[in-house]
Design the sequence.
């Protein structure tokens, strides 16, 4: 299993390293869905863990917290990106006034 994880780390670095900067924000938006699945998976694992299995509970809790932070951060970045494409209402009004 550890070999697969190490291989996936290298594959992920190669794939993300070759993505143009213009596409990073749309990819971040798509990654929100993946992190939502991570959160659900962590909750399920925590629910199945034995009550005295503290390492599993702590790791599950950390996965939920970090996944949630990643989802929220992704939505904030996506929202900021979309705001860049919206026109400023005041600048449109100023252009029509000056004509």
Sequence:
């Amino acid at each position: 299993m550890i070999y697969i994880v190490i291989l996936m780390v290298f594959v992920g670095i190669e794939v993300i390293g070759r993505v143009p900067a213009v596409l990073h924000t749309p990819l971040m938006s798509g990654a929100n869905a993946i992190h939502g699945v991570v959160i659900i998976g962590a909750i399920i694992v925590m629910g199945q863990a034995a009550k005295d299995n503290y390492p599993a509970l702590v790791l599950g809790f950390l996965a939920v917290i970090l996944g949630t932070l990643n989802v929220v951060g992704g939505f904030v970045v996506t929202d900021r990106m979309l705001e860049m494409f919206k026109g400023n209402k005041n600048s449109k009004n100023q252009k029509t006034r000056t004509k």
About this structure: The two ends are 68 Å apart (CA to CA). The chain has a mean pLDDT of 78. The CA atoms of residues 35 and 70 lie 7 Å apart.
